[in-house]
Amino acid sequence: MSDDLEKEAKSILKLLDGKCIDNVFRPRASDLCIECSDGTRFFVNTKDGGELDFSVTGGASA
After folding, report:
1. Nearest Cα residue to 35 out of 44, 19, 22
2. Distance of CA 24 to the CA centre of its chain
3. Residues 6+ positions from 44 with CB-CB distance below 8 Å
């Protein structure tokens, strides 16, 4: 795994650490949403089979 991908994976792990997952759903064919009990929504998506894109919305502040 490249250093950039490894750093990104560690950042994502940190964001999800201690979260309780309430729901996982697919809003579109190319999207996955992981919804946590504190309101955090973690989105993973891709366009045309390209690279994955990650984003996080809402939730409680640390």
Report:
1. 22
2. 11
3. 31, 32, 33, 34, 52, 53, 54
Give the amino acid at 24. Answer: V
Over residues 18-53, the pLDDT tens digits come to: 999 999 999 999 999 999 999 999 999 998 878 889
pTM higher than the cut 0.85: no
Burial of 36 (0-12, 13-18, 19+ CB in 10 A): buried
In DSSP terms, 14 is beta-bridged to: none
Catalogue the E-assigned strands of the chain. 21-25, 31-36, 41-45, 53-57
Quote the tokens at residue 34: 């992981």
Is the model's pLDDT at 59 over the cut of 70?
A: yes
